[in-house]
Amino acid sequence: MIVLNMSVSRKSVLIIACLLLSTLWILTISQPAGAQTTGLVAYWQLDEPAGATSFLNSAGAGDTGSCSGSACPSLGVAGKFGTAANFVGGNQRISIGSPSNLNFGTGSFSYALWVYVSASTGPYDMPWWKGGGSAPSPGFDMELGTGNWTANVADGSHIVNGSFGSETDNQWIFLVAVVDRSSRTFKTYRNGSLVGSASLGSLRSVSSSNPGYIGGLSGYGLNGKIDDVMIYNVALTGTQVASLYGTPPAISVAPSITTQPTNQTVTAGQSATFTVAASGTAPLSYQWSKNGTVISQATSASYTTPVTTSSDNGSTFAVVVTNSAGNAISNTVKLTVAAGLLSANPPNVVFGAVTVGTGSTIPITISANLASVAISNVTISGPGFTASGISSGLILNAGQSATLNLTFTPSSTSSVIGTLTIGSNASDPSLVISASGSGLISTISVSPTSVSLPTGGTQQFAATLIGITDNAVTWSATGGTISSSGLYTSPSTSGSYTVTATSAVVTSLSASATVTATQGNNWYVSQSGTDSSSCGSSSSPCASISYVSAARVAPGDTVHVNGTFNLNGNTCILTAASGTSSKPITYMGDPYGSAKINGQGACYYVWHNTGNYVNIYGFDFTGVQAHGNTNGGTSIILSEGGGGNVTVAYNTIHDLPSGFAAAIDMEPYGSGNYTGAPCSVHDNILSNLGYNGGLTQGNYGMYIACGTNTLVYNNLIYNEGSIGIHCWHAANNVHIWNNTIFNAQYIGIIVGTGDQGAVSGAYFDVTNNIVVNSLYGIIGEDASPGYVSKSSIFRNNLTYGNSTNWYYNNNGTSSTIQGAGMSVTGTLTGNPVLVSPSAGNYQLGSGSPAIGTGINVGLTLDLAGNPVPSSTGVNIGAY
Question: What DSSP state is assigned to residue 545?
Fold first, then answer.
């Protein structure tokens, strides 16, 4: 709004002007062309650009508006004059506070605005409110709801209502309300015409501390556009209202600099450009100065200097922006003119890795500045570097440049540093350019390099290519089958077989792996089977995993499971059979994800495994039993065979109610204690586990009490009600790599040892993990007699949005992992930029800081099955 108090008559102004002229002062009185401005104390034109959050009172009395309500209205939309503010849904508004110049007491005043109602949301949609809606609330408002449109004034005891007529939607309407104390009337105008007049009666002072709102009160807001809100401290006449209907007030706004000029640095012989941006009533004029002296003809928003010399170094520049309402002076900025006659772009050259025996060339622009330069010699050091394009005797005039081509042809894989020196007659006679690069040999490798499988078993192979930009390969096998992605299935007969990956680009480049297939039985389980069947084929399956484990399997066997299994108290899964180190027993959803197991809350443990050397692959689990004792309570998978070596991988566990111990509970146990045997938990997706259950004990995603090179990697855990990954008891030598944990409500990852089986000096390697939105991100904890080894390492983890990223509870003493002397390196703290967590997509989006910033720990595939680089460029997280 704009505030203008016209308390000096025109005659008085002329007298003052004459007096000032007599003392050689000049007073310019500017009365802009346009409609009524006399008595205008507030004028919000609402012409701010889209995204603005403050709203200028163009009458010059302050009263700047600010966003209020659920959100800012939309700005920059088409208005009646210029642009307008669009209020959606009745819950957006602009607050202008409670300025004293809008408290009119018992005086006359007028208030007006343009409105475009899209659709009324109720009976009291208010484009303007500063009290007045009821007798006890002094002030004045407009109410444009369904039915009759009104204006209201109140003094705390009395209210006077004026009518604007009936509701009209989807067109611009000009509304004016006039409180005329001299005639004791309250007049209302619509589109310039008088439509109502009411007696003010005994109306007293309308002043109040009520704040003013454009767009209305909460719950009584406008659904539509508002433009040109005007408030006067006089009673407008009918003629003045009609004039306003045709033409808005013309207000001149003094300049304001919105973007200051900045310091500039150039090399001698170049020009510098300074730029300013300003707002205010047009036209704006500009005048630049140098060192306090006006620059002739420098009268634009930008100024470009003549070609600089060393004498220009340190010069200062400023600009004055002027219009009819005043002027604004910019900050003073500095020009730096760099010395030197010969320059190189780029100044230094990095080739990176170049294939051995091939050349890579980078052009360098050599320029002469200020004066001509004669090249006397070009020399280069470092094996593999050569230069061409510039030779001794070349003369470059001021401003001229020439191209020098620097080529790197490595002969080995060593890193090389070179130096290019250009001698001349310049003031600095030697221009030195450093160069670096390394050699790269094209290779291909396959991992794993050897593997033992039961007949009919599967193994995912990965190929890594170095020195070739196209990573496509062709897979082949001498026995069995292999897919285009490298998933191998061994044949039905025992033997030794070869798996080969061949570069699709360089067909002479290949690498192989050896597969030893041992005769193992294949057993089949389906919900349509019976436990009296042979279980030996998909056409004659058994009905339960428990039966096959107890009555059929032997080391090296594979149990293929397909279908949906809704368990009850009698059909909970129990597997006690053990494999061997070379012949594990594998239970697998075939294909992965096709075996859906629902514990239906009936099983204390949905799957209780007491066997060793067991693989549990590719199942879909839900339906844990909610149990009061969450510390040592119910689980989806509990594996507690004392010999360990159990792998839980490629599974999905989801939608568990609060009140369980752990979704995956790995606790090798024997002879009355935790054995510390190894286990592996990888490539699992866990989601919605006791989320919002409010527990700090129990509701764990994974509970790890394993040791001896235990691996926990490539797991995705999100919407976890307590702790994502919890290591305790005999946990030792545990490697936690490349996991993504999102919304673990208590702790993302805890590494620790304590209670029964506690280890003195338990070692942990926590690398390449993403932990987002937890109370604690990554913590260490120990309880006597156990303690975490100070040799434990925490490398290249990304923590974001956690209340506390790092914490260490050392037998009850609070510290941080770093403060305890453990190695924490390469931590990132930026937003990981996941693709769409709300849609369940936790892969890394474009621009994620986790892309390529991890450490190679030897993984070959990520959670999505994509190859992992074998050296640098490893991602952080599960993808």
Answer: H
CA–chain centroid gap for 227, Å, is: 36
Residue 246 host element (H or E): helix 238-246
Q: Is 282 exposed, middle or buried (0-12, 13-18, 19+ CB in 10 A)?
A: exposed
Q: What secondary structure letter does DSSP report for 485?
A: T
CA-nearest of 745, 801, 796 to 772 is: 801
Q: In 447-584, which ranges are continuous DSSP H helix? A: 545-551
The amino acid sitting at 297 is Q
Report the candidate in 535, 463, 466, 529 with the shortest Cα–Cα distance to residue 499.
463
Q: Which two tokens stand for residue 160?
A: 């006077």
Q: Which two tokens stand for residue 127?
A: 């484009």
CA geometry: angle at 181 spanning 177 and 185, to 5°? 55
What is the rounded distance in angstroms from the CA atom of residue 288 to the CA atom of residue 173? 46
Q: How remote is the C-alpha of 699 from its chain's centroid?
A: 28
Over the stretch 348-385, which tens digit does the pLDDT of each residue have?
999 888 877 778 899 999 988 767 788 889 999 999 99
The CA distances from residue 123 to 167, 197, 452, in Å, are: 10, 22, 78
Q: Report the distance separating Cα 843 and Cα 322, nearest Å.
A: 54
Beta bridge partners of 48: none
**Alpha-carbon span 808 to 736, nearest angstrom:** 17
> Which uninterrupted H or E stretch holds 605?
strand 605-609
Q: What is the DSSP letter of 126?
A: B
CA dihedral angle for residue 655, residue 656, residue 661, residue 667, rounded to 10 degrees: -50
For residue 552, which of 529, 569, 582 has the smallest C-alpha distance?
529
Q: b/e per residue, 422-443, with b = 16+ CB within 10 A?
A: bbbebeeeebebebbbbbbebe
- For tokens 């163009």, what's the residue? 58
In eight-state DSSP terms, residue 218 is: T
pLDDT per residue over 208-230, tens digit each? 999 999 998 888 889 999 999 99
pTM attached to this predicted model: 0.49
Pairing state of beta strands 481-482 and 793-795? unpaired
